[in-house]
Amino acid sequence: MHDRIAATKATPAGISPAITFACALACGAMVANIYYAQPLIGLIAPELHMAPGAAGLIVTLTQLGYAVGLLFIVPLADRLENRRLILATLLLTAAALVILALVPSAGLFLAASALVGVTSAGVHMVVPFAASLAPAETRGRTIGNVMSGLLAGIMLSRPVASIIAEVAGWRAVFGVAAALMLLLALLLARVLPERRPTSGESYARILRSMARLLARERPLQRRAIYHGFVFTIFTIFWTAVPLELARRFGFSQTGIAAFALAGAAGALVAPVAGRLGDRGYIRAGTGVAMLIMIAACLLAGWAGAAGSLIGLVLFAIALDGATQLNQVLGQRVIFSLPGEDRGRVNAVYMTVIFLFGSTGGIAASAAYHADGWWGTMLLCAAMGVAVLAIFCTEFLGRRRTGE
Question: I need a surface site. Which of 2, 72, 267, 341 has the fewest CB within 10 A?
Answer without folding.
Answer: 2
